[in-house]
Design a protein that fits this description.
- This protein has 19 helices and no strands.
- By secondary structure, the protein is mainly α.
- α3 packs parallel to α5, α6 runs antiparallel to α13 and α11 runs antiparallel to α15.
- It is a multi-pass membrane protein.
- Keywords: Cell membrane, Membrane, Transmembrane, Transmembrane helix, Transport.
- This is MFS transporter.
Length: about 475
């Protein structure tokens, strides 16, 4: 449900903008507020889950998610909708922060790549179903209905998980409240600064930008000196772990910029209805659902480097092909390009997810899961900001509020989309480069494994020899 609600709103943003009579910079907060609170608390709850139990945190988040979904559907104004979506993101943080740690608990290491491939399918399925469900429900029942779909699904999910998930033992919770608060403030100020740049409020943007940098410095200082940090910055001394995280951040930015920007192009330039827009947006996630498990299996057998590199290359080609979209393109032109982008993401994500989760010891599983979720959602937050900024650079905000664009206005919005995909292509090139920086080949993994095996064998041989020597000495004394 978490990825569904990260994408279900996208196809309805143009409709919500028209319904409340607000511009793009305001309506994007319906999405951004959800992502900010999700991102701001995901590390906190991942750390909390290590002590309190991932299963308990997940169930509490699921209950809160259902409740806030009902509140979103009852929102009387854009301000209330933004508020309730922020609370929904808080509940989502509780769920997504521990989900990958629960997956790691459930599968042995030799099947971890395949399991994480299935996990990627679940994420992709949410992203795939989100636009379609959002488009159909919003088109026939109004935009408020897109939140009501969470109620029956969430209730059934809660009952199912309550009966199946085995509760782990509680330990004393070690809090890092200052770190959590500083992280949230820094993220909010960063996003608000980018929003002010969109609205050309440069003085305010400079002030909030400086405040964001100061808060970031305080957060780093807090995390380095505290005994139990919400984010263990020392993990990033691991070059491979840092490369994994940064490359995933780039990938999620590429994907989510498309989910944010393409609906405006489809509805306002190509004049497609919401239901058709939702179906077009399913192209990438549907391909990811199909290919991601296979990519995970390949990573288990041959290593992560080659499929991750190919994922970056395919994503670059897909995004550059979108620069050929015009005001005269059709839905199929967009669908096939998004499908190719989904293929690149599927090739990239499963191997990289596996490599990231395998890089750290099991006692840091919750922290690694939280960092991975943070990487994904930080990419989503920045994707919305950057895509909105690039679109605004090509067309005035008041024109985006129009239900349809024609002539020069339509061409300008299309040019804004071209800027978005070019930026995404640059990020994809970075993904391909980082795949060689951080990811191991299968051969390298085998060599490392053989070294460990030889060391263990020598240790066992020494113990055996020592035991035999002791037995010989005992027998000699008795003789």
């Amino acid at each position: 449900m978490v990825p569904i609600n990260a994408s279900i709103i996208n196809v309805s943003l143009p409709t919500i903008s028209t319904y409340f009579g607000v511009g793009l910079s305001t309506v994007q907060w319906v999405l951004t507020s959800y992502l900010i609170t999700l991102l701001g608390f995901v590390l906190f709850f991942s750390r909390f889950g290590d002590f309190y139990g991932q299963e308990r945190v997940y169930l509490a988040g699921l209950a809160g998610f259902v409740t806030t979904s009902l509140l979103c559907s009852l929102s009387p104004s854009i301000e209330w909708l933004i508020l309730f979506r922020g609370l929904q993101g808080l509940a989502a943080a509780m769920m997504i922060s521990v989900s990958m740690a629960l997956v790691r608990k459930s599968f042995p290491s030799q099947y971890l790549g395949r399991a994480l491939g299935i996990y990627a399918v679940a994420i992709a399925a949410g992203l795939a179903l989100g636009p379609a469900i959002g488009g159909i429900l919003s088109g026939f029942l109004g935009w408020k209905s897109i939140f009501l779909v969470n109620l029956p699904v969430g209730i059934l999910d809660f009952i199912f998980c309550y009966m199946i998930l085995k509760r782990s033992q509680k330990t004393r919770v070690k809090w890092d409240i200052p770190g959590t608060v500083l992280q949230f403030i820094c993220l909010f100020l960063t996003v608000y600064t980018l929003n002010m740049v969109e609205e050309a409020s440069y003085t305010t943007a400079i002030i909030t930008g400086v405040m964001a940098l100061i808060t970031l410095g305080l957060f780093i200082y807090q995390e380095l000196r505290t005994e139990n940090p919400v984010l263990n910055l020392k993990l990033f001394k691991n070059r491979k772990f840092s490369a994994f995280s940064l490359s995933l951040h780039f990938n999620y930015m590429c994907m989510y910029m498309m989910f944010f920007a393409v609906p405006f192009y489809l509805q306002k330039v190509l004049h497609l209805d919401q239901a058709t827009t939702g179906l077009v947006l399913t192209a990438s996630p549907v391909i990811m659902m199909t290919v991601a498990p296979l990519s995970g299996m390949v990573a288990d057998k041959f290593g992560s480097r080659f499929p991750a590199f190919m994922g970056g290359v395919v994503s670059t080609v897909a995004l550059l092909s979108m620069t050929q979209l015009t005001v005269d393109s059709n839905a199929w032109d967009v669908f096939f390009r998004l499908a190719l982008l989904g293929l690149g993401a599927a090739l990239f994500q499963s191997p990289t997810n596996k490599a990231l989760m395998s890089e750290l010891p099991s006692e840091n599983a919750g922290m690694a899961s939280g960092i991975l979720a943070t990487t994904r959602n930080l990419g989503m937050v920045f994707a919305v900001c950057y895509a909105g900024l690039l679109l605004h650079s090509a067309i005035p905000a008041e024109l985006i509020e129009s239900s349809a664009l024609y002539g020069a206005d339509a061409a300008n919005l299309t040019s804004g989309l071209h800027l978005v995909v070019i930026f995404g292509a640059i990020l994809s090139i970075g993904m391909a480069i980082l795949s060689f920086t951080g990811l191991k080949n299968k051969k390298e993994s085998i060599i490392e494994y053989e070294k460990v095996a030889v060391e263990k064998t020598i240790q066992v041989e020494r113990k055996v020899v020592g035991t035999i020597s002791n037995l010989v000495m005992v027998m000699t004394k008795h003789q």
